[in-house]
Design brief:
Distance between the termini: 44 Å
Number of helices: 16
Oligomer: single chain
């Protein structure tokens, strides 16, 4: 996928001066051997073992010259907390800490590393410098355990680096009927995100400018036809028009990122879009999202950001869906696998047709039924409709509330292999504990109707990304017997 950072992870060994540096070097060598065995990509060993401030500066020079953008501070022994956290402070990119477990009783007599102490002092010094550092649940590891932690951290770092170098591009004001997608943008700037808000007229001018680039439009239309095949390409006559729109968006993406490295879109897609452009933008939105450039519906800036984070942590396409409607009993076959959820925890995630083909069980180009009631079929063609593929999923949203404070939720579950019997890009989601979560988090904390969906269970990674970004209000489903704040204990 394009539009994501490549994480170049540096492993920096540290050693307290009253411990032999050879202990850190030997343990670092064992760790790197396991990294090579696991074929973990883009992981580099720093040749400098940090024992003092001068070493910190040398290690920083190494990181800069090798374009290292994330680091793991490896405590092969107790480690010097001052020089270690000084390096982290001046490095400024995502950082984590791991510490070496003792290998066995033969080492305890003279080669003990005391890394449990070291992580405690590291944590204290990190707090003094007001740094956000990823510390795993179990930071003291064997070389084999370190590989799993490093793999997780690469996904965390990818999202953090991406967000800090992101531009969110919007076209048009939020639709009046969907004011819920509107939110203060100050928290985006606090995260380091650039926001570029444009008029719908800007997109019309951009679209018209693309008309002369006929060979590029033809190539995109041909690619669309190949992706859809005969059966799904219901309206081949619209492909040149929506191909021109895709070219317009991609041209804007390439030329308007400016100083940012990555970009996403949040575009107004109704009600004026269809009479002016004569098609629906949904299929084009799905194609860009599939390549790593989420295009959120209804100018949902935070929806686009949430989709982007989900794509960064999975390196897979995500989608944006309405938390939409209940599931009637007669839709659920007898004995159906509900993915660990009960019937009251099922709901349908829906949108007009923005979920990409690789995330659909079956799909084809259709017209948007709801908008066609008002505008007719001719100008509402271009949605990608069908059942979302059965898979694991993580629903997720990062949002500003009305007080310009970041809030978030994460919930894991599954898209079920049950026919939704409805229209749009739609799937039945089973999230254990969703009914109470919906009432006391989604409603209770006034989240909007859009959620981002990763096609993988990545709650652990998303939680750590949010903490690295400084988000404190992170909501997850609570188990039965544990009350949400304000939940009526007599109604459970």
């Amino acid at each position: 996928m394009i539009n994501q950072p490549t994480v170049k992870l540096g492993i920096v060994g540290v050693s307290r001066d009253c411990f032999p540096a050879s202990l850190t070097k030997a343990r670092l060598a064992a760790l790197m051997e396991e990294v090579r065995k696991a074929a973990l990509p883009e992981v580099y060993e720093c040749p400098v073992v940090i024992e003092n401030d001068v070493d910190s500066m040398k290690a920083l020079d190494w990181a800069k010259s090798n374009e290292i953008n994330a680091v793991c501070m490896f405590l092969g022994n107790f480690g010097p907390e001052g020089p270690t956290t000084l390096f982290v402070q001046k490095f400024q990119g995502p950082a984590m800490v791991l510490a070496a477990k003792e290998e066995g009783k033969k080492n305890l007599a003279s080669d003990r590393g005391d890394a449990l102490c070291g992580v405690l002092n590291f944590s204290y010094s990190v707090g003094l410098r007001r740094l956000k550092v990823y510390i795993p649940e179990y930071p003291n590891v064997t070389p084999e355990e370190a590989v799993a932690e490093l793999s997780d951290f690469r996904n965390i770092a990818r999202a953090v680096i991406g967000v800090r170098n992101l531009k969110v591009i919007g076209f048009g004001p939020r639709p009046w009927d969907f004011l819920a997608c509107n939110a203060p943008i100050q928290p985006m700037y606090d995260l380091g995100i650039e926001v570029q808000e444009n008029s719908e007229l800007d997109m019309k001018v951009q679209f018209d400018k693309m008309a002369s680039r006929t060979s590029e439009i033809e190539a995109i239309a041909k690619d669309m036809a190949q992706e859809l095949g005969m059966e799904r390409n219901t309206y081949p006559e619209i492909l040149p028009h929506i191909a021109q729109f895709e070219l317009a968006l991609m041209d804007w993406y390439e030329n308007q990122k400016g100083a940012s490295k990555y970009a996403v879109f949040a575009n107004k897609c109704w009600p004026a879009f269809q009479p002016v452009f004569k098609f629906e933008p949904c299929y084009v939105n799905s194609r860009l999202t599939q390549r790593g450039i989420p295009v959120a519906c209804e100018v949902d800036l935070y929806g686009a950001l949430s989709e982007y984070i989900a794509e960064c942590v999975t390196e897979m396409p995500a989608t944006l869906l309405d938390i939409n409607n209940s599931v009637p009993d007669d839709v659920i076959p007898e004995g159906a696998d509900l993915g660990g959820a009960c019937k009251k925890d099922l709901y349908m995630g829906f949108h007009c047709g923005n979920t990409c083909t690789s995330c659909m069980k079956s799909c084809k180009i259709k017209y948007q039924l709801i908008q066609a009631r008002l505008m007719g079929e001719d100008i509402t063609k271009g949605t990608l409709e069908g059942q979302i593929k059965p898979s694991e999923t993580t629903m997720f949203r990062l949002q500003s509330n009305s007080d310009a404070k970041l809030v978030s939720y994460i919930a894991e579950g599954k898209f079920l292999d049950i026919d939704p019997c409805s229209f749009g890009g739609i799937g039945i989601a089973g999230i254990p504990g969703f009914a109470r979560f919906y009432r006391h988090v989604l409603i209770g904390k006034r989240f909007p109707h859009h959620g981002a969906y990763a096609f993988k269970k990545v709650g652990k990674i998303l939680f750590e990304v949010l903490r690295m970004l400084g988000v404190e209000d992170i909501n997850t489903p609570l188990p039965a017997g544990q009350l949400y704040p304000g939940e009526n204990p007599f109604a459970v």
